[in-house]
Amino acid sequence: MKEQKKIKNKPKINKEITVAELQKLVEKLKEDLKKANARITQLENFIKQNGLRVPESDYKKEEDEEEKKKEKEEKEKERDAEIKMEEIKKKIDNKKMSIGDRINVTLGLLKEEDTYDNRIEIMANLKVVKEILENNPGIKDLNSLNGNKNAAGDNNNT
Questions:
Q1: What share of the chain is helix, strand, coil (3-state, %, to 5)?
Q2: Of 5-9, 74-78, 107-111, which range is least confident?
Q3: Structural domain boundaries in the chain
């Protein structure tokens, strides 16, 4: 019973804050944050001027890790595209198509739905055509390679 007399409960009333008071508090916190950031910048500059390295924050490390992850994903996509392009190029080489036929296939793909696979195949076709043209500097007329005797006649009808 003695212990109960020693305990004194004092009720604490929650203070109600108006919107205007909250806005003032937010403005004060923003100002404090701005001052703290300015001080951090000042101290970092001082450290750098004295030939020392500023330690990275955990927040910066997380950003760097995310950036590295994105770069890795992009490199993987590029590598996958190159592999797919090489596969398509091998298929094209195996078909032994004439350069005119390759160009016609490429034009046909351009008219089809724009998909990732079509883009890769178009790029592979164009790469093969470019290599053929570079390796055969004497090629001046694509119609002669096309194997299509009506190619010149088609130009006259347009």
A1: 75, 0, 25
A2: 5-9
A3: 76-147
